[in-house]
């Protein structure tokens, strides 16, 4: 069993795409282990995006991610769930994301790319501990 962190970003919630996105993971055979609609603040986002702090796009990223609630979820599957989720999301820039991926089907720009998924099992463990510290 393995878990990964998924965030349906504010643009996905605003556009009513949360059911579509989580439904894709469920239909794939993954399970929702935890989920919460939450307004994310700059302190929490600073911990989550620690590798991006100080980059040119960082302030815009925090402004976007905190402008309205996001749906934060832990998704569970047999092994390397992070990789299954990442392949279903498509690449960071929706312009190069193939049809059939979440970003390819619903996104147009990198700054509002609908969904976050942990990029490794180690990142998943770190990110889940940030958003769901009580989850066992
Ligand atoms: P994600 O990979 O989920 O997490 C980091 C986010 O930063 C990324 O999605 C994009 O939304 C954003 N991002 C990454 N690179 C850039 C960039 N060059 N310009 C603007 N936003 C970016």
Top keywords for this entry?
136 residues; alpha+beta; Alpha-Beta Plaits; 4-stranded antiparallel beta sheet; 7 helices; globular; binds adenosine-3',5'-cyclic-monophosphate
Give the SSE layout.
Layout lengths: L1 E7 L1 H5 L3 H11 L2 E8 L3 H7 L9 H8 L4 E8 L3 H9 L12 H5 L8 E3 L3 H11 L5
Antiparallel strand pairs: 1-3, 1-4, 2-3
Description:
The chain is an alpha+beta fold and 136 residues long. It has one domain: Alpha-Beta Plaits (2-Layer Sandwich). 41% of the residues lie in helices and 19% in strands. The chain contains seven helices and four strands. It has a four-stranded antiparallel sheet. The longest helix is centred in the first third of the chain and has 11 residues, at 18-28. The chain is globular, with a radius of gyration of 14 Å. The mean pLDDT is 98. The structure holds adenosine-3',5'-cyclic-monophosphate (CMP). Residues 52, 57, 61, 92, 110-111, 113, 116 line the site of adenosine-3',5'-cyclic-monophosphate.
